[in-house]
Task: structure prediction
Amino acid sequence: MSSLAKYQLGELTFGSKSEVKALLSAGHTRVASGTRVGDPLIATVLTLLAEAHPEYATKFGSGIAHWIIQDNSDVGYTTVGYRAMLKNGQGPERFSYNDVLKTPSKWQNLQEALTKAADDITQQFREQAFANGPFECPVTGKLLERPTQARATHVSPSRRDLHLAFLVSEGIAASDVVLAKDQPGSGYRIVDSELVQRWRKYQCDRLGGMRVEWNPQSRSE
Result:
């Protein structure tokens, strides 16, 4: 498949947005309402999409503890979807992943551009975790034997909060950053090369808030 068709979501790569929708749609098919989402890939995708939601701070401000499957009868629909249980004990919080997967906002495009601009840094961080050989995933306990089984993820702060903190440190808003279509490839890039270099340094100085864990997309290996 052409790289132009790829859809990047955090550290995960899909062939298209349709592939993401199919994954999430299949995840709640014939599953009882109230069931906790047990598939780590689906849970990761939902969290990454939630972090791209423009109302993340209002809806999920305390952080997401886990996801559940719930019918939408309480809001007058016969459909089934996903809702978030929050770390502060509140929930379930409604979430429509289609709101994020449709035409992306400037903030979503900027998040993608920042992630790609520092991709080699996070990938090096991931590979360095294997310097002393295989190790257990700190989240799942799975034995990770090679970098392709793992992903480097932002924990403290989250990737979204790191991006926001960088913008605050620069005294700019997302709307101030000029983006251009990334060619070749998909998505966007930041036009200001000096801003990119400051972002890369900002990322390098905060690797202590990252960890390497099992990549749920590697489960077929």
The mean pLDDT is 90. The chain has eight helices and eleven strands. The longest strand covers residues 64-71. The first helix runs from residue 17 to 27.
